[in-house]
Amino acid sequence: QQQVKQSPQSLIVQKGGISIINCAYENTAFDYFPWYQQFPGKGPALLIAIRPDVSEKKEGRFTISFNKSAKQFSLHIMDSQPGDSATYFCAASMYGGSQGNLIFGKGTKLSVKP
Amino acid sequence: KAGVTQTPRYLIKTRGQQVTLSCSPISGHRSVSWYQQTPGQGLQFLFEYFSETQRNKGNFPGRFSGRQFSNSRSEMNVSTLELGDSALYLCASSFADTGGEKLFFGSGTQLSVL
Fold first, then answer.
1. Rg of chain A over CA atoms, in angstroms?
2. Which of A41, A98, A104 sits opposite B107 (nearest CB)?
3. Using CB atoms, which residue from A34, A89, A100 is nearest to B33?
4. Residues of B with CB below 8 A from A96's CB?
5. How many CA atoms lie within 13 A of A5 on its CB side?
6. Which of B99, B104, B107 sits opposite A97 (nearest CB)?
7. What is the model's pLDDT at position A101?
8. For testing the chain A interface, which of B9, B43, B48 should be mutated: the one with the most A CBs within 10 Å?
9. What pLDDT is attached to residue A98?
């Protein structure tokens, strides 16, 4: 009930290509869906987040697409760059994310080849 | 503005010992959350403190405990260490007033239990 499933586990994309990472959730009480980026030796850093009342949110090269009926959301990275190589985590929480208790997916290791 | 500071960066302990990890949140942040990160289980929520009170708790045994001080600094303690407690322990802070607040993560404490 609390699980967030993320795919793929790893992804290799050519520079300039589009990276797509997908997540699915079960609990319809979730109302906050962030994506985090983590580089080796560092903690995760928030990239972009969405609430279920919108179907898409874009910030620069990063876009979240949200499908409430399918209980799925995805991250699109346009014009992927070698500097985007990192591990990406989707997450979900209740209470608008106000209580710090995010449920994370298992992560996707992205490698962008020059 | 200083980020979230976690000390120590690395720790090596033996089974049966106990350990205390420290976290200094960003100035002005009142919420501190703790997460355990392992290659197998990913990022898992331990607990969250807000204004010195534990507001939320994940599914971990009672050997894992924490507290928050009046200056918002937080500590977590793990007693009777087991091999499976080897992990990166991450602390995150936020204002946590209105929901959807950005969680700022520290770089973590890497705990190895031998």
1. 13
2. A41
3. A100
4. 98-100
5. 7
6. B99
7. 82
8. B43
9. 62
Position A65 scores a pLDDT of 96
Q: What is the pLDDT of residue A97?
A: 57
The one-letter amino acid code at B22 reads S
Q: From A31, which residue of chain B is nearest by alpha-carbon distance? A: B100
Which residue in B has a C-alpha nearest to residue A104's C-alpha?
B43
Size of the A and B interface in Cβ pairs below 8 Å: 71
Give pLDDT, residue B76: 98
- Tell me what the pLDDT averaged over chain B comes to: 92
Q: What is the pLDDT of residues B49-94, one digit of tens each?
A: 988 999 889 999 999 999 999 999 999 999 999 999 999 999 999 8
Both tokens assigned to B81: 């260490």
| Nearest residue to A1 via CA among A35, A32, A25 | A25
Joined tokens for residue B27: 């100035």
Tell me the mean pLDDT in the region A41-53: 92
Q: What are phi and psi of A20, to 5 degrees?
A: -130, 125
Q: In which residue are the tokens 């994506």 written?
A: A35
